[in-house]
């Protein structure tokens, strides 16, 4: 009997550990194969540096890398926040004004299909080579998922529940805050996760076109000098910034759900 | 008093020559054709009829959520033009907020009406205990069965003490056994909370068991074709549904509905 119980506990704790162990194992295996392959074939460092060389590049360029985080991260975050607020406002406007929705929504959906990256040089032309153009472009590229998901979410509220609110003589504002918004919250959260990623892409594309600082700029500089290890180190830093933002939103959305009583 | 005022004074709920036409014009649908319906104070009346006969539309007009094309709806002598807090409404779906507990769902009207939550909390707990949910106060709707959810919805409709309760097929989405149970629950609640009730259903048995009076409606366009008093004393026990008299009444109502086809 005891042995059976012991085996079961062991297998279930193994299953729990497997969730983190398996991806980690795969990640380090790929690094290992990469390291071995580049060392064994003496592969040109300028094309594919070894993982150990990238680690070394991070150590050697630590202050250069860290000092370029803020210019990229702040503009991306700023763009995301503006996109969220403006996007939220527009979807509320479209939920309550039929005319606005009829005029605006088809245009937004249509515009969504256009490859927005193609607009990046125009933003430089319109807003200059300073951070404003990158901020503007980040807003532009990351606002669409917010508008579209939030409008869908607000529309998705159970119509009978709205009738119930009406029958209870609820004001529009009460229905919005007590029913519609909490219903749309999951939509908003998934849209925000998508939006921050797009804001990052927007800023990096902006930095590729014209910038004197930022991780995107650093990638271009390293590219010019064929310092591939520094390029990959910068990419790695961008990953960290992205992950940080993502967890920030995951936490913020958890707080929002608690606040609205969803959790 | 004019004739109309006398008519109104006698009825807690009054539909006076109510007509409802959807999409007036060439493609119009006449949902209701000159309906007269009156419910006295404390009376429980069922609107019985086939699907699409406009009985829900009539209920929504009484709730102030729809406006009649012609005729007038009065509750407590006053014409209905918009929803009022002396009227409670129950739907086919429980329409609970999925992220709120049973207790918070019951207190939802209190929040909307900006009344003092502390004053009503005790009443809400009492109501939930009354319908056998004292162990489920902090459970979310997803953790409750269909019947339990509809019990929460009944409590929510009663907690702010409306004078009139309008019910739109509240039990029709439940299975037969749960439905019989809910009929008894509602019957017992009615004993304690004397309200004026209007109950829409397409179940003959349910209508007869619950009501003081059953109004039979014809298929579209809806008209009232029968107004039958149910003779059983209150409180009723569900066992009466097996009696010969009960089944005779049901058979009579069935023949009235069938005569429409």
Outline of the structure:
Chain A is mainly alpha-helical. Chain A has helices at residues 2-40, 51-60, 62-67, 69-96, 98-113, 120-127, 131-155, 159-167, 172-209, 215-224, 228-259. Chain B contains nine helices and ten strands.
Could you please describe the fold and organization of this structure?
The complex is a heterodimer of chains A (263) and B (261). Chain A is an all-alpha fold and 263 residues long. Chain A has a single domain (62-259), classed as MetI-like fold (Orthogonal Bundle). Chain A is 84% helix and 0% strand. Chain A is built from eleven helices and no strands. By secondary structure, chain B is of the alpha/beta class. Chain B has a six-stranded mixed beta sheet with strand order 6-7-8-3-9-10, sandwiched between helices. Chain B has a four-stranded antiparallel beta sheet with strand order 2-1-4-5, covered by helices on one side. In chain B, strand 1 (13-22) and strand 2 form a beta hairpin. In chain B, helix 8 crosses helix 9 (244-258). The interface between A and B is medium-sized, with 20 and 22 residues.
């Amino acid at each position: 009997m005891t042995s059976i119980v012991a085996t079961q506990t062991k297998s279930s704790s193994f299953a729990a550990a497997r969730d983190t162990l398996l991806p980690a194992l795969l990640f380090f295996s790929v690094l290992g194969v990469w390291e071995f392959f580049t060392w064994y074939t003496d592969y040109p460092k300028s094309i594919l540096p070894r993982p150990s060389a990238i680690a070394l590049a991070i150590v050697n360029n630590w202050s250069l890398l860290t000092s370029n985080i803020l210019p990229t991260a702040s503009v991306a975050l700023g763009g995301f926040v503006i996109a969220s607020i403006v996007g939220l406002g527009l979807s509320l406007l479209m939920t309550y004004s039929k005319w606005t929705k009829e005029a605006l929504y088809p245009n937004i959906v249509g515009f969504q299909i256009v490859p927005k990256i193609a607009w990046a040089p125009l933003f430089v032309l319109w807003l200059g080579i300073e951070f404003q153009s990158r901020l503007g472009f980040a807003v532009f590229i990351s606002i669409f998922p917010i508008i579209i998901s939030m409008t869908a979410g607000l529309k998705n509220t159970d119509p009978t529940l709205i009738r119930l609110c009406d029958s209870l003589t609820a004001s529009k504002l009460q229905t919005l805050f007590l029913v519609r918004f909490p219903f749309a919250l999951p939509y908003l959260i998934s849209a925000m996760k998508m939006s921050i990623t797009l804001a990052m892409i927007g800023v990096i594309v902006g930095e590729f076109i014209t910038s004197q600082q930022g991780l995107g700029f650093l990638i271009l500089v390293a590219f010019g000098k064929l310092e591939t290890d520094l390029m990959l180190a910068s990419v790695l830093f961008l990953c960290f910034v992205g992950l940080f933002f993502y967890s920030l939103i995951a936490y913020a959305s958890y707080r929002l759900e608690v606040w609205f009583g969803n959790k | 008093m004019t004739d109309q005022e006398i008519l109104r004074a006698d009825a807690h709920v009054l539909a006076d020559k109510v007509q409802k036409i959807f999409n007036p014009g060439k493609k119009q649908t006449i949902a209701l054709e000159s309906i007269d319906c009156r419910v006295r104070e404390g009376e429980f009346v069922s609107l019985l009829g086939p699907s699409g006969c406009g009985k829900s539309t009539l209920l929504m007009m009484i709730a102030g959520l729809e406006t009649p094309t012609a005729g007038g709806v009065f509750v407590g002598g006053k014409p209905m033009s918009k929803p009022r807090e002396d009227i409670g409404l129950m739907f086919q779906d429980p329409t609970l907020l999925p992220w709120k507990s049973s207790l918070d769902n019951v207190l939802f009207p209190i929040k909307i009406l900006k009344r003092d939550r502390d004053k009503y909390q005790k009443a809400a707990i009492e109501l939930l205990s009354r319908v056998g949910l004292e162990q489920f106060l902090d459970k979310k709707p997803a953790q409750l069965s269909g019947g339990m959810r509809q019990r929460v919805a009944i409590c929510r409709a009663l907690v702010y003490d409306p004078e009139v309760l309008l019910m739109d097929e509240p039990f029709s989405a439940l299975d037969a056994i749960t439905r019989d149970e809910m009929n008894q629950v509602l019957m017992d609640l009615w004993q304690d909370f004397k309200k004026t009730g209007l109950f829409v259903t397409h179940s003959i048995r349910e209508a007869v068991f619950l009501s003081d009076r059953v109004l039979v409606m014809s298929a579209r366009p809806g008209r009232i074709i029968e107004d039958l008093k149910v003779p059983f004393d209150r409180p009723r026990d569900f066992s009466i549904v097996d009696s010969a008299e009960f089944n005779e009444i049901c058979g009579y109502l069935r023949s009235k509905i069938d005569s429409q086809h």
